[in-house]
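Input/output pair, single chain:
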Amino acid sequence: AWGWSGGAGSSLPGRPRAGFGVGAGGLLHRYVAARPARAAGLQPMPVLALAMLPLLVPDLPFGDGWVDVVAVGLVFPVAIVLGASAPPTARLLAAFAMLGAASYPVYVLHVPALKLLERVLGAGEVAGGPLEALHVLAGAASVVALVACALARDRWYDRPLRGALTGWLRRRGTLRDPV
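Output:
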């Protein structure tokens, strides 16, 4: 996948890929911000289910690229707009805040965690049988462990470091409060 590994062979074609995500995110933010009304009957969980649909598509013989294009170009933007219109419960809001706090640390830690999982399980493909079930179970446990590590990193490293840097910059007079 372009833009996923280092080097010019991946970096150069990965720029439009990243640019699309940033640009589409900015446009969606503007669109959602321009329409502050909430949809009273819309619930967040069906919207989350919609966003998860592309993950349920099995490997296709003609290429998974089309699933990615439909997901990124249609399913995810629709889910974002609907999700921004669906008022969450207080409990869901707390869960979303927690997952939001974990998102950047997950981004930072997911490649080393994936490499570790590959080493533990072996890089070979496993098709069928109890060993495949073990791989699925290990993958699910790894996701839970990754989110737990990300939350710990946010709580005991990122937030204290941000607080210390913010205090230091304010004392120096170089940090201005956002307008």
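The mean pLDDT is 81. The chain has five helices and no strands.
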